[in-house]
Amino acid sequence: MAVTDEETKHRRPHPQSLSGPFLECDLMREVDQLHREPEWESGQNARTLVKYDDLRIVLTALKPRKKVAGHQANGRVSIQGISGHVLVRADGRTFDLTPGRVVTLDRGVVHELEAIEESAVLQTIARPSMT
Question: What is the three-class DSSP state of 30?
């Protein structure tokens, strides 16, 4: 997939590789960093923590009442509550996502998020192999 100029200007430089034989991150430190960046003023900020051809892990921080409009992924998705309280809506259902809870979605399932309070979620996307 080609990256457009519009996509490039919204991406932040990553200080370290997002792929390798092993990666480690401190989720709470990453959430604190998201809160300190200018993008947080919009009510939402996210950072890709892991990026392989077939796997992405994205940490997203949301302010209260912030909504992430309906979207879908071409791979299976898990959304794990790290802090706060988020509603996940998909396929006519609403799931309460609080710390320690996980919701999984099959490929192509349209879903949206709504933060009830200041929250952070970890999204893992297992993408189909390109082979």
Answer: helix
Instruction: Determine, yes or no, domain membership for 1.
Output: no
Instruction: Compute the distance between CA of residue 63 and CA of residue 119 in angstroms, rounded to an integer.
Output: 7
The whole-model pTM stands at 0.83
Answer yes or no: is 18 within a domain: no
**Model pLDDT for residues 15-42, shown as the tens digit of each residue:** 456 766 778 889 999 999 999 999 999 9
- Does residue 61 lie in a domain region? yes
Q: For residue 3, what is the enclosing H or E element? A: none
Q: Within 10 A of 90 (CB to CB), how many other CB atoms are there?
A: 19
Residue 103, SS3 per DSSP = strand
